[in-house]
Write a structure and sequence with these properties.
The complex is a heterodimer of chains A (306) and B (344). Chain A folds into two domains: 80 residues, no CATH class; 212 residues, MetI-like (MetI-like fold, Orthogonal Bundle), CATH 1.10.3720.10. Chain A contains twelve helices and no strands. The two termini of chain A are 13 Å apart. The chains are: A mainly alpha (306), B alpha/beta (344). At the A-B interface, helix 9 and helix 10 of A face helix 2 and helix 3 of B. The complex binds adenosine-5'-diphosphate and magnesium ion. Magnesium ion binds next to helix 1 of chain B.
Chain lengths: 306, 344
């Protein structure tokens, strides 16, 4: 297991190098001279040259890349073009907000998805199963910004139960979490259901029953552990999709998270901030995949490492 | 023959599957006894209802299957009258079962030890340490080398033969009075087959349990069984002790099975397969289920279903030939030992 984790960590290196090259190229692939972009259209030549000098833009590209990499590892992405404050000062507070939103939503979708999926499978073809699956289909097909707007309309404006905007107090958390977590919950519910139905047919389930195991333990001990194996992968993919989904959700609920920061920075052509946001999202995505791989392997001892 | 005590008496068991409003009678009036401490073989072609009969005994039939009638008397009590809780206390404790597919019958996500311990915990309340000790003891009993190591391994680390031994260890954990083995060797290599059968036989003598050995292989029956029930299309067609069955088989289906089997105890001129095929469940013949394939069938056979009747010596036959109503050749010889010559 340890060798497996070490090997997977080593495999991250080329992936991360690829990601950093892409992010680094953002500046250089955009039309125009980065220093010019940084300085603004009407800046005098002297300013542009000063910037080129400061950023080392006259160095060969590989050198520039390694400097960028060395800075990135120290979480130093330079200064924002809008206010010359360090990029980290912009990104970090926003990052915690988005991370909170993403984690709470994931917990919400796992919790709801697993319960709904298990109930559906155990009561296959009953009213509960059919209703859960219909609701899941809706949850899956609804664009999440639309769901967000509907929730605000009903629960904030009509009923006044929750705050329609912001992030922090409990009554600001509920609606964004539901908005962001619903699609994931629906996917997890469907996956759990089909996986459970498949597992419950297996010979080893019959063996467990033949041993005198109670039906409850047959389901929760023997079937669930096996049924979760494919679900774990879905949960991992879900988390990735969710990071992207935060952009819309943050916009709808006016949450000052990284998603909104990213959009604002793209519009303001604030390249250093864009680079930092993209890199952080990419690294998290890769790390989550690693965690999924490891849990998948912990659950399923049969997987061949090679 | 002296009257023996039966540990299990199955009477007129009926189990059906209900698929799209149609009833498929997988087990259609099965009757047999398992004498205490002895081995009953249930033999028949694939699809004849052997597994469903066995699963019905422990009420392991799931939707869309349902036991629709009969009695399963275990030590004088009808298991079909038991509550779910009572039947759970029988399963894996008084009656255990091992299955045809060792590769898929163990849970891939739990260790061998965990799976054996589970039965010990449920029925004897053994904790982790005592359970593990007992599990190691059981693995040793079923002939698994280095049981200390095996007990912490996962099923994927074991071969098919080893897994079947683990299944047997699991089944024997609580010293069952009856072991149901559903084709325990069909999925295994021939040499492993012999070892597993030998193991079951030894353990039976050691523990004194009764066994139901399900198989489609008369060779296995000859080797391991004391009594035999021959099944065809969800019904028992012949029930006899094993010597009688091999020496003087009476039902044409049993004779057909014997003639299609290579034997070492008699010289055979040729192997004769039974002609025709098993009828599909939705197209069962009205009379004797075997009539379309039977060389002796008459109008009576084609139109009327014979009963399973005692013919003396504890033997039971479901065939018109052995009744007073028989309308065919009164001198008919179903089994002709003279066609083959005796050979000591
Ligand atoms: N899950 C099922 N659904 C519908 N029919 C079934 C099912 N399982 C078994 N049957 C029916 O029961 C018959 C007997 O099956 P089985 O007892 O498994 O035969 P075997 O003698 O080979 O063990 C089959 O021919 C089939 O028609
Ligand atoms: Mg079978």
């Amino acid at each position: 297991m340890t060798t497996f984790i070490i090997r997977r960590l080593l495999q991250l290196i080329p992936v991360l190098i690829g990601v950093t090259i892409l992010v680094f190229s953002l500046m250089h692939l955009t039309p125009g001279n980065p220093a010019m972009i940084l300085a603004g259209e009407n800046a005098p030549d002297a300013t542009v040259q000063a910037i080129e000098q400061r950023l080392g833009l006259n160095d060969p590209l590989p050198i520039q890349y390694f400097n960028f990499l060395a800075d990135a590892i120290r979480l130093d992405f330079g200064v924002s073009m809008r206010d010359n404050l360090p990029v980290a000062d912009h990104v970090m507070p926003r990052f915690w907000v988005t991370l909170e939103l993403a984690i709470y939503s994931t917990i919400f979708s796992i919790f709801l998805g697993l319960i709904a999926g298990i109930v559906s499978a155990v009561r296959q073809y009953t009213i509960s199963d059919i209703s859960i699956m219909i609701v899941a289909l809706f949850g899956l097909s609804m664009p999440n910004f639309w769901l967000g707007l509907m929730l605000i309309q009903y629960f904030s404006i009509n009923l006044g139960w929750f705050d329609p905007t912001g992030w922090g107090s409990p009554n600001q958390l509920v609606l964004p979490i539901i908005t962001l977590g619903t699609a994931g919950a629906a996917i997890i519910a469907r996956m759990t259901r089909s996986s459970m139905l498949d597992v419950i047919q297996q010979d080893y389930i019959r063996t467990a029953r033949a041993k005198g195991v109670r039906e409850r333990y047959v389901v929760y001990k023997h079937a669930l552990k096996n049924a979760l194996i494919p679900v774990v992968t879905v949960i991992g993919l879900q988390f990735g999709a969710l990071l992207a989904g935060t952009v819309l959700t943050e916009t709808v609920f006016a949450i000052n998270g990284m998603g909104r920061l990213l959009i604002d920075s793209i519009q303001a052509r604030d390249f250093p901030v864009v680079q930092a946001c993209v890199l952080i999202i990419a690294v998290i995505f890769v790390l989550v995949n690693l965690i999924v791989d490891i849990s998948y392997r912990l659950l399923n001892k049969r997987i061949d490492l090679d | 023959m002296k009257q023996e005590e039966n540990i299990l008496e199955v009477k007129d068991l009926r189990t059906s599957f209900f698929i799209e409003g149609e009833e498929v009678k997988a087990v259609d009036g099965v009757t047999f006894d398992v004498p205490k401490g002895q081995t009953l073989g249930i033999v028949g072609e694939s699809g004849s209802g052997k597994s469903i009969s066995a699963l019905s005994i422990l009420q392991l039939i799931g939707h869309p299957g349902k036991i629709v009638g009969g009695e399963i008397n275990f030590k004088g009590e009808n298991l079909l009258d038991f509550s779910e809780k009572q039947i759970r206390q029988i399963r894996g404790n008084k009656i255990s079962m091992i299955f045809q597919e060792p590769m898929t019958s163990l849970n891939p996500t739990y260790t061998v030890g965990q799976q054996i311990r589970e039965a010990l915990k449920i029925h004897q309340g053994l904790g982790k340490q005592k359970g593990t000790d007992k599990a190691i003891e059981l693995l040793e009993l079923v002939g698994i080398p280095s049981p200390q190591k095996r007990v912490t391994q996962y099923p994927f680390e074991l071969s098919g033969g080893m897994r079947q031994r683990v299944m047997i260890a699991m089944a024997l954990a609580c010293n069952p009075e009856l072991l149901i083995a559903d084709e325990p060797t069909t999925a295994l290599d021939v040499t492993i087959q012999a070892q597993i059968l030998e193991l079951i036989k030894e353990l039976q003598q050691e523990i004194g349990m009764s066994v139901i050995m399900i198989t489609h292989d008369l060779g296995v029956v000859a080797e391991t069984c004391d009594y035999v029930a021959v099944m065809y299309c969800g019904k028992v067609v012949e029930y006899a002790d094993v010597r009688t069955l091999f020496k003087n088989p009476r039902h044409p289906y049993t004779v057909g099975l014997l003639n299609s089997l290579p034997r070492s105890d008699v010289d055979q001129e040729e192997l004769i397969p039974i002609k025709g095929t098993v009828p599909p469940p939705h197209d069962m013949p009205e009379g004797c289920r075997f009539a379309p394939r039977c060389p002796f069938a008459t109008d009576l056979c084609h139109n009327h279903l014979p009963e399973l009747k005692d013919v003396g010596d504890g033997e039971q036959i479901r065939c018109w030939i052995y009744t007073d109503e028989w309308d065919g050749d009164p001198e008919v010889k179903v089994y002709e030992p003279e066609r083959t010559s005796e050979n000591k």
